[in-house]
User: Which sequence fits this backbone?
């Protein structure tokens, strides 16, 4: 609890009667600068006020292909304490326990550090919380509680990864975010394997993703998942939970950047960080599914508009989003949102921003308020898809195993309080 002098009202009890104590009086008392007795007589007893230590909670995970479900878990964990410390599992531990990660540790670290509810990050965290690591959490990091979702986390030997924390009485549970998982997202991308396996040419990702979301199910080696579509049920409350809830201040310099932000990744995070450094308020336009499909192919976007919006909203560099932003930045958009500067990264799925005709940024260019930003990381959504395609057999095998545990979870699922 953080004490604010102007908001504090204490009390003293004298002979059984209670009297109000001013903020300055209490401030001196908390600092230990009041003389004993204070001339109030032997019968005086002061109510004890102590500034408590912040409650620190810990949550770990692979955070591979980080999505809004991960972010919501971190939001819930943060709500159980004052400070959230997050452990990111090493590549080696993931390989040993689950199979190869899609995104390497340094990219996963970028993603986790960018989540607005995260206070500290521990790199190379173990997959299972050992007794030694738990002691380190309690002693070195001053962790009060270890947090995990209501879905089971079982080690290869069949034991509970959080058994020690539960036995120590230092474990708290949050509610799993329904409708999304890394397994589900990988499954959506594994759709392209069908055409890849039936063709000798692997050069065109767009052609591999050309069948659309409503294509028939295919045999992916026994998976019952088939064609993957989002099962996310968006609610206004969830959007409010992710939103900062405030607009720009007077005379704020508002920066605008737009795009698909599909499979939200470290490249997105880094360009958003750079954009935010240019002003006081970062407004992000997120294109609707139809616009993304028209530009990138019928299989895109992998994640729908609401899923992509939540992923962007969870980023600490973002102040507000336009859900379903127009593909062209018009004069009306610039005026309505009082945009000072429109920016675009050098690394992108398309080169529309370089066109002489049909350039979606023609208006801000003509107004002299358009700027190209050097993208810090050479990563796009296609980069992530290529990683899946290149190692699809390993991911398909991993998905089959994960799908079995998820099916069991849903069969045994009961209502869990929380959000």
Assistant:
């Amino acid at each position: 609890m953080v004490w604010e002098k102007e908001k504090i009202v204490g009390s003293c009890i004298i002979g059984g009667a209670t009297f109000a104590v001013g903020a300055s009086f209490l401030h001196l008392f908390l600092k230990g600068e009041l003389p004993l007795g204070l001339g109030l007589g032997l019968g005086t007893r002061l109510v004890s006020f102590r500034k408590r230590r912040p409650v620190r909670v810990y949550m770990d995970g692979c955070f591979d292909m980080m999505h809004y479900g991960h972010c919501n878990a971190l939001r819930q964990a943060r709500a159980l304490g004052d400070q959230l410390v997050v452990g990111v599992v090493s590549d080696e531990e993931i390989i040993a326990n689950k199979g190869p990660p899609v995104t390497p540790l340094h990219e996963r670290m970028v993603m986790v550090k960018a989540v607005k509810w995260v206070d500290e990050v521990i790199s190379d965290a173990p997959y299972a919380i050992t007794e030694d690591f738990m002691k380190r959490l309690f002693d070195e990091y001053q962790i009060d509680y270890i947090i995990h979702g209501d879905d089971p986390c079982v080690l290869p030997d069949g034991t509970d990864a959080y058994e020690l924390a539960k036995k120590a009485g230092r474990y708290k549970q949050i509610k799993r975010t329904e409708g999304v998982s890394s397994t589900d997202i990988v499954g959506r991308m594994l759709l392209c394997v069908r055409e890849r396996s039936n063709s000798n040419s692997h050069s065109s990702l767009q052609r591999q993703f050309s069948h659309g979301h409503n294509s028939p199910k295919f045999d992916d080696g026994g998976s019952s998942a088939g064609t993957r579509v989002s099962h996310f049920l968006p609610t206004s409350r969830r959007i409010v939970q992710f939103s900062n809830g405030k607009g720009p201040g007077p005379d704020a310099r508002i920066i605008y950047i737009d795009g698909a932000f599909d499979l939200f990744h470290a490249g997105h995070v880094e360009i958003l960080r750079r954009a935010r450094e240019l002003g006081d308020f970062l407004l992000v336009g997120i294109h609707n599914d139809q616009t993304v499909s028209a530009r990138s192919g019928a299989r895109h976007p992998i994640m729908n508009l609401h899923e992509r919006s939540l992923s962007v909203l969870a980023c600490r560099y973002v102040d507000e989003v336009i859900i379903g932003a127009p593909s062209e930045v018009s004069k009306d958009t610039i005026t309505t949102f009082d945009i000072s500067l429109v920016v675009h990264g050098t690394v992108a799925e398309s080169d529309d921003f370089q066109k002489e005709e049909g350039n979606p940024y023609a208006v801000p260019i003509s107004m002299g308020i358009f700027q190209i930003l050097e993208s810090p990381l050479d990563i796009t959504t296609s980069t992530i898809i290529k990683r899946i395609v290149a190692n699809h057999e390993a991911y398909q095998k991993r998905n089959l195993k994960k799908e079995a545990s998820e099916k069991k979870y849903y069969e045994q699922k009961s209502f869990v309080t929380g959000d």
